[in-house]
Write a structure and sequence with these properties.
By secondary structure, the chain is mainly α. It contains eight helices and no strands. The chain has one domain. Helix 5 packs across helix 6. The longest helix has about 35 residues.
Length: about 250
């Protein structure tokens, strides 16, 4: 059973990753091109002609991958992301099946996918949203990565607390759901308040372009988890159906 779920998760994760890649390519790449153009224009305006020539030469020395190759590599990245996430999700689903969540396989898959999106994607996004090129100091990339990973850990911990709380509270679905939501939000709010903020948006950067990029980044993840959750749930429900008895001649 675990092997079947793992293969199912990997294949459907690849499918969802490619679909998310199509969305990211159509909606996100134009924003990245605009951000890169702004970065190059700002660099040209800050340097003199001689300094600009040296910076231009240094830039061409440092660029190893062209924009065309990056756009093509987007689908490779989202596909590999889908393979990895699909495999991990299948293993977690196998551990949850029959123990927590909805009784039906499809319902459990949808609930697990929604919980994963909220804990791993939405919680970090609220505190540390994605930024396009030209936003962010290269010297702080390590600290920013650690803070982002810390918020992912908080989201996973909050999800575990919420599930445990919902199982222990009695009195019907409404008290359980209310207690679970409160248990999920409490550690998230505390962590978002205590962890330092990151604001490295340069002056004059278009706010519209910034939030368009951030919404596209969040939308790409939403597309992935929606496609994957629905497909994985449908496949689990279909596999759980009893086989039809052969019709006698």
């Amino acid at each position: 059973m675990i092997r079947t779920l793992l293969v199912r998760g990997v294949l459907l994760g690849l499918l969802a990753g490619l679909v998310a890649g199509v969305f990211a390519f159509a909606a996100g790449e134009p924003r990245i091109d605009d951000a890169i153009a702004l970065e190059q224009a700002a660099a040209s305006a800050e340097h003199s002609h001689d300094q600009g020539t040296a910076a231009h030469e240094h830039e061409h020395e440092g660029v190893e991958v062209s924009r065309g190759a990056q756009k093509a590599g987007l689908f490779l990245a989202t596909g590999l992301y889908g393979l990895a996430v699909g495999g991990v999700f299948a293993l977690v689903y196998a551990g949850l099946r029959g123990r927590v969540g909805p009784r039906s396989d499809g319902g459990l898959a949808l609930a697990a996918a929604g919980t994963a999106f909220a804990a791993v994607i939405l919680v970090p996004f609220v505190k540390y949203p994605a930024n396009p090129p030209a936003v962010g100091d290269p010297d702080t990339i390590t600290s920013r990565t650690l803070l982002y990973l810390a918020m992912i850990g908080v989201g996973l911990l909050a999800a575990a607390i919420a599930v445990t709380t919902g199982r222990r509270v009695g009195g019907g679905p409404w008290p359980r759901w209310t207690a679970a939501v409160a248990a999920f939000l409490a550690p998230v709010v505390v962590a978002a308040t205590l962890l330092p903020g990151v604001d490295e948006v340069p002056d004059g950067f278009p706010a519209t372009l910034l939030w368009q990029f951030r919404l596209v980044s969040l939308g790409t993840q939403l597309v992935f988890w929606t496609v994957f959750g629905v497909a994985f749930g449908w496949a689990c429900d279909r596999a759980a159906r009893p086989a039809r008895a052969p019709v006698p001649a």
